[in-house]
Amino acid sequence: QVQLVESGGGLVQAGGSLRLSCAASGSIFSINDMGWSRQAPGKQRELVANITRGGSTNYSDSVKGRFTVSRDNAKNTVYLQMNSLKPEDTAVYYCDGDIKIARFIPVRKYWGQGTQVTVSS
């Protein structure tokens, strides 16, 4: 069993910052890519950022220059530093990880339960 647990969401004023964390635990052999996506009310889930095990990153155009994704491989944790937040960043943020639970078991994507981020104007 693998669990991803997010923390750090909340309410912040426009222009403010939040830092999300997501820790993976359980029967983990290795973790490849990790990332963040978000879903606003009435909208489809969209990719926010992802990061490879080696630290290469990718961002959506809407957050580039404002958000930074990082990870601590020793802690099986991925972070999302969000600066200059805008009301349109309001959404439930989900982390995910491409995880192997054993050497000969294929990689599978696991998701966290989500954390609410609300940005007031």
Task: Give the SSE layout.
Blueprint: E1 2-7, E2 10-13, E3 18-26, E4 30-39, E5 46-51, E6 57-59, E7 67-72, E8 77-82, E9 91-100, E10 108-111, E11 115-120
Parallel strand pairs: 2-11
Antiparallel strand pairs: 1-3, 3-8, 4-5, 4-9, 5-6, 7-8, 9-10, 9-11
In short:
The chain is mainly beta and 121 residues long. The chain is 0% helix and 58% strand.
Q: Termini separation (Å)?
A: 40 Å
Q: What gyration radius follows from the Cα positions, in whole Å?
A: 14 Å
Q: Beta-strand percentage?
A: over 45%
Query: Which structural class do you get from the secondary structure elements?
Result: mainly beta
> What series of H and E elements makes up the topology?
EEEEEEEEEEE
Gross morphology is elongated
Mean pLDDT comes to 97
**Got a strand count?**
11
What's the helical proportion of residues?
Answer: under 10%
> How many separate helices?
0
- Sheet bearing the most strands, described? 7 strands, mixed
Uncertain segments: none
